[in-house]
Write a structure and sequence with these properties.
The protein is α+β, with helices and mostly antiparallel strands. The protein is built from 13 helices and 14 strands. α3 packs across α4.
């Protein structure tokens, strides 16, 4: 028995599901001795991004990747073991802040063949139930969207993940769902990022979304993070599949902040012998600042390292103005000259007008001139033949 994305192998009593295998954690302690005796805490992952902690009170011999039946409120569920031993205890201490209020259920047993079959049957019901639940929500004119439906392992309860801008009174909705599906209902509100993590997709980098592959915490991301990294304020490039700012904006933020510590607190105007130099561009990682000097209606651009800028600022404070020729980097000038020569070779002598009307007029003139040239050539040929005769 199998479903979409799930395969049940009765020979070795295993079940693989691509949707349940999301957010797989790599146990870096696999090469070390077994640490399951150090802690009873076990991390179990379910469909999508849901992970919970359980206690192995019966001292069952389990390892990462095993399918286990665990206790839940009013029934039981089935999941895959993610972490055990010391690493699971470390994750529990890191993620669970208030341990007194967190209810830790116990692990019943290793999943049997009948448990796996019921799990697959429950997963088969998820998609049709989700479609019907959206229809019922539209019939009741509720301003909400059912993003995903997750059935429990025993098939007696389902979690409906919904998205809503404001508060929704879904008391009548729960009654409709209970009478329609004959199961226990749990409504859980999620955001746009959680929806993208449940659905999955490919990001602009060409890889699977971070939220659906490994990321579990969704910290707040502001546009200030993009400006601190010198990124373009283009909304299309900064937003992800969920319509929010990309989570990867936080990955290199610390590196940029550390590099900015070497820059002067204020990029002051540099005083040179040719005039004042004003900054217009900054490369944080290369620690380089671009300046421009306007003198006699001519503009000269050049770049300086941060150490050189600090040296010039100290000279200006003493009242000295360095020569502009000493600030220019000859290697950069040679590269700029080569680039200009390359661009000149690519461009043609005749400039193509940008205006569509001028381009159309030019093509029309060329088309009218060609038949006129042909007529003149024909007349010359005829006159030459008459003269010969």
């Amino acid at each position: 028995m199998s479903c979409t994305g799930c395969q049940l192998n009765k020979s070795d009593n295993t079940l693989t599901s691509s949707r349940v295998d999301m957010l797989t954690s790599y146990n870096w302690l696999d090469d070390l001795p077994d640490t399951t005796h150090l802690s009873e805490i076990v991390e179990v992952r379910f469909k999508g991004t849901r992970k919970e902690f359980f206690r192995n009170e019966s001292k069952i011999s389990i390892k990462r990747g095993d399918k286990v039946v665990v206790a839940s409120a009013g029934g039981h569920d089935l999941g895959i073991v993610g972490l055990t031993g010391k690493l699971a205890q470390m994750q529990f201490d890191r993620k669970i802040k208030d341990k007194d209020r967190y209810q830790v259920f116990s692990i019943y047993r290793i999943a049997r063949e009948r448990d796996l079959e019921r799990w697959v049957e429950a997963q088969k019901r998820e998609k049709p139930v989700m479609i019907r639940s959206r229809q019922i929500a539209n019939e009741l004119n509720l301003n909400m969207k059912i993003g995903e439906v997750e059935f429990r392992g025993d098939g007696n309860k389902a979690i409906f993940y919904y998205i809503a801008d404001g508060r929704v009174d879904f008391r009548e909705l729960i009654k409709e769902y209970a009478s329609e599906f004959h199961i226990k209902i749990e409504m859980k509100q999620i955001g746009a990022r959680q929806e993208a993590a449940l659905i999955g997709g490919i990001g602009s980098c060409g890889r699977e979304l971070c939220c659906s592959s490994w990321r579990t915490d969704f910290t707040s991301i502001s546009a200030h993070m993009a400006t601190r990294q010198g990124l373009s304020p283009n909304a299309e490039k900064l937003t992800g599949r969920c319509g929010k700012l990309k989570c990867c904006l936080t990955y290199e933020l610390d590196t940029y902040l550390e590099s900015q510590d070497d820059f002067p607190k204020e990029l002051l105007i540099l005083e040179t012998s040719a005039g004042e130099a004003r900054h217009f561009k900054i490369d944080i990682l290369q620690k380089r600042i671009w300046y421009s000097v306007v003198n006699n209606k001519t503009r000269l651009n050049f770049s300086l390292q941060v150490d050189k800028v600090k040296e010039i600022i100290n000279l200006n404070k003493r009242g000295t103005k360095p020569e502009l020729s000493s600030l220019l980097d000859p290697s950069l000038e040679e590269k700029a000259d080569e680039k200009n020569m390359f661009n000149q070779n690519l461009t043609s002598d005749k400039k193509i007008p940008r205006n569509k009307k001028l381009r159309k007029k030019r093509t029309n003139n060329n088309n009218t001139q060609e038949p006129a040239k042909k007529k003149n050539n024909q007349r010359q040929r005829n006159s030459s033949t008459i003269n010969k005769a």
